[in-house]
Design brief:
It is built from ten helices and eleven strands. By secondary structure, it is α/β, with parallel strands linked by helices. The chain folds into two domains: 29-112, 3-Layer(aba) Sandwich (Rossmann fold); 136-260, NAD(P)-binding Rossmann-like Domain (Rossmann fold, 3-Layer(aba) Sandwich). Strands 1-11-8-7-5-6 form a six-stranded parallel sheet. A three-stranded parallel sheet has the order 3-2-4, sandwiched between helices. Strands 9-10 form a two-stranded antiparallel ribbon. Strand 2 (31-37), helix 2 and strand 3 form a beta-alpha-beta unit. Helix 6 (137-148) packs across helix 10.
């Protein structure tokens, strides 16, 4: 029997409509500022998608498209201006930055209550303590999907492939906070295939085409494919061999149409939360 598709596109559409209705009740529209430095094509696509999301949710949005020659000081000055703006509730720095620019001081300069990507050390610390102001967008989107599909995490064996600060580490934390038994695997982990085959919930965020095969998936497992890759034909794909894994897993996120739409919807939810708290 084929796996049940975790439809991130449908869930994101539903969530954004709920956000739009809630935002319409506020005294002013939530505001999001997006900073884009350089001309990275993928980043430009992401930013355009976020602009559309803001329109759909009834938010006010501003985009700052800066040249690759922008200096660290100019970037920090812009963040400080946005920190002081009363009509801006969320500030998003689109990564990666061009060579020569260090994202760390810029991310740390964003006010924690406007850090809707949850990258500021204060927000990371709050997340670790279980006192999150915002949930990181991609891991938060995964947790929302599991909840909406009635997938219980407590007591389950959870394996997260990848230990990045953006996905892997916070994903493991959120699963742990829902009482999952979590293993974080990475490039130095031995016998990854055997580890994955024991997982009730498997989250892959590595960025390697064809990494997860049917033999690495437990019968009936929940498989969440976070990665966004391109195969040899330029087609968008994740880490999971979708067709063969779909015959073994109980639930599976498609790529595209799975985690990606939920990531953007969670950004809108974080911006709404920021506006309500301010």
């Amino acid at each position: 029997m084929a796996a049940i598709k975790l439809d991130g596109t449908a869930l994101a559409r539903q969530l954004k409509e709920e956000i739009r209705q809630e935002a319409a009740q506020l005294e002013r529209r939530p505001g999001l500022a997006v900073i884009l430095v350089g001309d990275d094509p993928a980043s430009q696509v992401y930013v355009r998608g976020k602009e559309r999301d803001c329109q759909e949710c009834g938010f006010y949005s501003e985009k700052y498209a800066l040249p690759a020659s922008t200096t660290q000081e100019e970037l920090l000055d812009l963040v400080e201006v946005l920190n002081q703006r009363e009509d801006i509730d969320g500030i998003l720095l689109q990564l990666p930055l061009p060579k020569g620019l260090d994202p760390t001081p810029v991310l740390e300069a964003i006010r924690p209550d406007k850090d809707v990507d949850c990258f500021h050390p204060e927000n990371v610390g709050r997340l670790t303590l279980g006192q999150a102001r915002f949930l990181p967008c991609t891991p938060g989107g995964v947790m929302y999907m599991l909840e909406q599909y009635g997938i219980e995490v407590a007591g389950k064996s959870c394996v997260v492939l990848g230990r990045s600060n953006i996905v892997g580490k916070p994903m493991s934390l959120l699963l742990l906070q829902k009482d999952g038994t979590v293993t974080t695997a990475h490039s130095r982990t031995s016998d990854v295939a055997q580890l994955c085959a024991q997982a009730d919930i498997l989250v892959s965020a590595v960025g390697q085409v064809g990494l997860i095969t049917k033999e690495m998936v437990k019968e009936g497992a929940v498989v969440v494919d976070v990665a966004m890759n391109q195969d040899e034909n330029g087609k968008l794909c994740g880490d999971v061999c979708q067709e063969e894994v779909a015959q073994r897993a109980g639930y599976l996120t498609p790529v595209p149409g799975g985690v990606g739409p939920m990531t953007r919807a969670m950004l809108m939810r974080n911006t709404l939360q920021a506006a309500k708290k301010r």
